[in-house]
Design brief:
By secondary structure, this protein is mainly alpha-helical. It has a domain of 64 residues. It is built from two helices and two strands, in the order E-H-H-E. The radius of gyration is 20 Å and the shape is elongated.
């Protein structure tokens, strides 16, 4: 069975995309915080290092919100004129 994805719900996409970005930001922020605490003072990442564990998830989540809204709107606009993504499903019954 072939179906075409013609529209993506902006709200649901933004929620999922932002949460994924928050998780990625937390992982990267944790690594940067650990590296900044383990590094000698002369090789330190400055004052942002220890705060990266809090700062990165917030900034990444906001970035995910903005980019998710932009790309969802762009996809919906292009799908209207060019056709959506064709998906193929197999019935398991």
């Amino acid at each position: 069975m072939k179906l075409k994805l013609m529209k993506i719900s902006t709200k649901s996409f933004i929620i999922i995309f932002s949460i994924i970005n928050v998780i990625a930001g937390f992982i990267v922020g944790t690594m940067i915080t650990i590296m900044s605490l383990a590094a000698p003072d002369e090789q330190s990442m400055g004052p942002i290092g220890p705060w990266a564990i809090l700062l990165f998830p917030v900034l990444n989540g906001l970035l995910g919100l903005v980019t998710g809204a932009f790309f969802t709107g762009l996809y919906n606009l292009l799908a209207k004129y060019l056709g959506g993504i064709e998906l193929e499903f197999k019935n398991q019954e």
